[in-house]
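Job type: complex structure
Entries:
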Amino acid sequence: MAAYPGMSMGEAHRRITEYLNRFSDAVSKQDAASLRFLLSLSSNSPFLLSLADALNTFHDSSRLIKHSDHYSQFSDILFNFFRSLQTYRLANLFDSYQAFEKSANAFIQEFRNWESAWALEALYALAYEIRVLAERADRELASNGKSPEKLKAAGSFLMKVFGVLAGKGPKRVGALYVTCQLFKVYFKLGTVHLCRSVIRSIETARIFDFEEFPKRDKVTYMYYTGRLEVFNENFPAADNKLSYALTHCNPRREANIRMILKYLIPVKLSIGILPKDWLLEKYNLVEYRDVVQALRRGDLRLLRHALQEHEDRFLRSGVFLVLEKLELQVYQRLVKKIYFIQKQKDPTKAHQVKLEVIVKALKWLEMDMDVDEVECIMSILIYKNLVKGYFAHKSKVVVLSKQDPFPKLNGKPVNS
Amino acid sequence: MEKSHRQRPNPSSSSSTQFRSQKFRSNPTTKDGKFTKNNSPNAREDFVKPRRASQQTQQHVDDSSNLPVLLGTCPFMCPVAERTQRERLRDLAVFERVDGNPRKTSSDLAVKKFCRTISIRDMPTSDLRPLPVLEDTLDYLLSFLDSSEHPFEVVHDFIFDRTRSIRQDLSMQNIDNEKAIYMYEKMVRFHVRSLHKLRSCTNENISSVHYLNMEQLTKALTTLFNLYDINRSSESINENEAEFCSFYVLLHLGSNSQPTGESLSLWFRQVPIPIIKSKEMGFARRILRFFRMGNYKRFLLTTAAEASFLQYCIIEPYIIEVRALALSCINNGGYKLHPYPLTHLSKLLMMKESDLVSFCGACGLEMVTDEVGNKSLLTKQTTFCSPKGASQSYGFLNLEPFER
């Protein structure tokens, strides 16, 4: 391996020793912020990048590590970290991950022995890095025709870290951060059901008090658990969690707010709450614009069109089925509009809506439905309390209740 | 340094609550890995679909599953040792007996039983059947479906167990090529047909038989999806994959039914786009939409018009549910002075009038008859209940393709 132009052996030697000294200083001074910086491999900081070059120039770093007692005690952590950094720099992500995992494991052993929770921030860096490196390693594996397995391994490692933090001491406040990293791993892998056991630990174990956790972690946690509720169509729970995330999210983190809204909006729509247009514009959630419009206008064609146009996106985020179900509310709106129009013409007869009229309205929306199907839909709307009234089969008419014929959802999902 | 331990899943139980579980490894006899990069049009950006290679050479040093890949050598449908042992113990199914003798079988009749407790380490290769033997065994087993000599439960029980053993042998040898796909497709179809046929069986523990059938159906289906994944190439999608994906959707129709423990929304995320747009999936998704909406008219109409027999087998229990819902809605929302005419109702629910009368009765609803003998359903009755004991779905009016 040729030496880097401009970096002499001496220079390389110096940089490596500098890192080692900074590392041991950070530990002895309990300076978590510095330690965090030193471990953030994928941050591509100039300092670490030139360290990587130095390591690729001066190959015998292990000798340097053993040089002094200050850092030889951390030789496992350091040696493997160096190896990880070196291979990372050479774009060998698989080896980089392998070495990083070894380093991280060694770090955990040390971390366990430190009584106070001073090093939590550095631990967070490790948790983050191991996930990110694993993702990249897996991409490399896949592009070489091999089976990706490192993200799964990272998940196992993170579970181990969780176990280390799940105790009575002050370190336990770190558990939520690690949980969130686990969520990201599981969501990426598609093994979302594995979230269940961590959630159970967080929510039922007596050692944890949810309010003690850092706010940022609580927001992330609620975001992911809220998404799980969306997958399972538990709308009240999803509303609670995602709204929590929204209210407590830093308003300047617009990307995060957008992510929360992406899932909150379908939930709100399902309980009858429509977002204002400016919200959709501001956070670039225009895929919902037609859906909202369809709900406002009772325009079934528009809803179907919107679902088709953004089908892939909605399927991918898991909200497609939720949005599809809004059809019933769109029908309700359509009938309501017909009722209002009739009311203007003749208030005394407005509450009687001929099925034929609904058929015509739907035809105008290019939806082909016969009287039987309209009757079927009406009977469903009545059954689910979206419409109050009854239908007279022989006269082919719907008779609406004189009071509150179109009950609002009031924050509750449509009766199933 | 602790190695992160990955336990090799028990091959016999194929336990995958994890949808695309990474159980299958390469087999030296599989075709050369046709591999696509993750930027194929099927990959969705934010989701890295786990893929498996079909070359064995990719075992890495740290790979924790350093178990041997076995190649079976048993030339018979049943290993000789097991055969003689079962003869001695008189543990022979009726189909395995020579001239009905419970103590005598032959190499033509004996089929290897499923063994829950055996692990891959204890299975000698002489007891494992290689792929060609497994293929022949499967076809032999499925041929019993054509005979009517024995009651269906007995036939089902035999095929159920012996195919499970076939899957066990396949799994232990890590056979994951297209031939494995064909076999799994046949086995899933068997379980789906059994869904339908077991419904007309009357013995007392039929519900547990039914439950176990559903369990194996979903396990086999999950494994089949893994196989499709492994064998996927950028040029083609397996021709049957869409159909089997549609089964998955239909199995999840009911809001309480998550037989695989996973919500449909989650599953849809990883279905390749061409499959989503297929005719079979289009059908299944429409049925799903009608069901969730409560649109009983379209649900029944579309099922009758478009469902394949196998799809019908899965939808069948929901037909009853939807018809009951229809009655409930009509009873609930219909004008009291306009009883709903039976003729119209029978067209709407696509049932014979006589069947409809008994169905209404099963739902606790009465009919009235007018002066000229026309029956109608009274509405606003308070006695509506879920139909009890209505296990048969009364078919679809004058369409009888579903009585196969």
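Summary: Strands of chain B lie at 340-341, 367-369, 375-377. The radius of gyration of chain B is 25 Å.
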